[in-house]
Amino acid sequence: VGARALIAGSLAFLHGAQLYTLAEFTLRNAIQPALIFLTVYLAIEIFGLIFVARAILFFAVASAVLATLQYIGIDLAWDVRRILGSIQGDPPDIKLILRSGGRPMGLVFTPILYSYHLVAGYAVANLLFRYGLMNRRLYAIFAIIVLLGSIANGTRSLVLAILVNESLQLAIRGQLKSYALLIVGAAFAVGGFFYIQSTGSRVASLDDASAVSRTVLLEFGLRLFLDNPFGFGWGVKPGDYAWLFWEKLSHLPKADTVFRLGIHNAFVNFLLQYGVFGLSLLAILAAVNVRKAIAIATAFFAYFINAMFHNAGVFVGDLYFW
């Protein structure tokens, strides 16, 4: 964390970032993850690992169930979130969602943070299951609840992350029963897709503005990094550089989004913030302990898939203090 803070802070300073920007991102990307790690570590020391894991899973389930109820139009479920919002002080855009009963977010601060909340809970449950600390039936129930909560929220990357992770785990086992479950699961997934498509769910839409714009944003982000491989540091706003690439991007669908939206890929955002120095730091850490690096990549595979389609995520966190 300290090394990354030094890299990103130095790059930001060299690119003329204001003092308040450096202070904000030191809070977001250095102090915040350190405090979260310390809090969880102390909670495990005091209450025990199983208690902490169960607490994480409990609130993931509670949020998923509440989001599902919000999705089907139960106003009481929205009232619970509105009460919570009046305590923590929701921003105007979230208040608008709560008034209109728009995109479900369970108990969480925003719809996108909800997706990170659920995928983190799913990763914890998956680890417990793989290490024999959660039985198969309970894990299956949890995974179904989280999947339903993901569909209710309308975050396609979260649904994709869970389905891909579960499919790979079944395929890797190499057992006849696993392949049978994979075929049955695929049939349910196809049937479920056509059903939610008939209901107009956001999950089944692949041609809306949000989905289409991801392609041009990704190409823009990669072009910007290749032109600036050392990175920009904290607080970079890619849209400020969009005019430099407009001639190469203007022919793409929804090309104007490069001026208005973030890159929507946590890994490209990492490259833009930390550059080759940050990438080298991760490569060195992975090389020091290859087995641990592979274990982390496997354990958080679903989390990484979700982060590929959002601005926050791996080492470029949002404000999670709530």
Low-confidence runs: none
Task: Please state the overall shape, judged from the principal axes of the Cα atoms.
Answer: globular
Number of helices: 15
The helix/strand class is mainly alpha
Q: What portion of residues belong to β-strands?
A: under 5%
Q: Which range best describes the helical content: under 10%, 10-25%, 25-40%, 40-55%, 55-70% or over 70%?
A: over 70%
- Reading the helices and strands in chain order gives HHHHHHHHHHHHHHH
How many strand units?
0
The biggest sheet amounts to: none
Radius of gyration: 21 Å
Average pLDDT across residues?
88
The end-to-end distance, rounded to whole angstroms, is 21 Å
Structure notes:
This protein is mainly α and about 325 residues long. Helices cover about 75% and strands about 0% of the residues. α1 crosses α13, α3 packs across α4 and α13 packs antiparallel against α14. The longest helix is centred in the first third of the chain and has 29 residues. The mean pLDDT is about 90.
Please write out the topology.
Layout: H1 2-14, H2 19-47, H3 49-71, H4 75-88, H5 92-100, H6 111-130, H7 136-153, H8 156-173, H9 176-198, H10 209-227, H11 246-249, H12 257-260, H13 266-288, H14 290-299, H15 301-307
Helix pairs in contact: 1-2, 1-13, 2-3, 3-4, 3-6, 3-7, 6-7, 6-15, 7-8, 8-9, 8-15, 10-13, 13-14
Features of the shown structure:
single chain; 322 residues; mainly alpha; 0% strand; globular
Q: Could you give a short description of this structure?
A:
By secondary structure, the protein is mainly α. It contains 15 helices and no strands.
